[in-house]
Amino acid sequence: MRVLKPMHRTITRIGISFILASTAIIAVMAIPSAAQKSPSCPPIIASLLPKNGSIRGGSYNASGPMGMGSGSADLPFDHPCIKSEKYPARISIAITYYGGEMAEMLKMQGDAANEQTIQNAMDELKRSKRTPKREKLPGGEIVYVDYTTECPAEGAAGQGTVNRPPIPNVKLTGVTRTANVRLEVTLEGKISTDQAKAAVAEVFENLKRRKTAR
After folding, report:
1. Residues 6+ apart with CB under 8 A from 119
2. Mean pLDDT, 10 residues at a time, over the chain (214 residues)?
3. Is the whole-model pTM more than 0.70?
4. For residue 197, how many C-alpha atoms fall within 13 Å in the half-sphere facing its CB?
5. What span, in angstroms and rounded, lies between the C-alpha atoms of 143 and 186?
6. Domain range for residue 181?
7. Residue 204: CA atoms inside 13 Å, Cβ hemisphere, count?
8. How far apart are CA 37 and CA 143, in angstroms?
9. Tally of CB atoms within 10 A around 152
10. Which burial class, exposed, middle or buried, applies to 57 when counting CB atoms under 10 A from its CB (0-12, 13-18, 19+)?
């Protein structure tokens, strides 16, 4: 016991630092930016992103028994008022891989880190003056706000007011984990709530099928 206690504290500190770093990566990548001509994304990350997305880039780095990766993709959404934007939403992921004995750290943490991420996201979403919605998806959990904005006057030109429906918007954070990988996902932009959920559920399923991120 004299040996295990200090090891537990050390492992916990390491885990927290990786979690914070992952969150920082997501925060930076959450907002859509200008398209890249030749986005580079390792297969290990690309395989987790939705198949219908346009990959914007990604990275994966391993050090000893642990690894970290991130990536993002722009998502399509068909709406009469946003024809000029083929990919008006973006999904971003960040993963932490725990190899060998370090996988025990993930087991010890359980869902504590995921719960903290969800609570932090809820606090942030409340600042938008909208009520966050928390839901479980197969393999993970999400919290989000959804709302609509008006179709701009130049949108759906010549179609009249009737054919200018409001534009759906979503801002979402999700979490999931396997025996050796913890994943956080964010999604933001002009997209229907159902399609946003479907994209995140696909990421969760991709991770489940992969089983390992090494």
Report:
1. none
2. 40 42 36 47 96 97 91 96 93 93 80 94 95 96 97 63 85 95 97 98 94 50
3. yes
4. 15
5. 10
6. 4-210
7. 19
8. 32
9. 11
10. middle
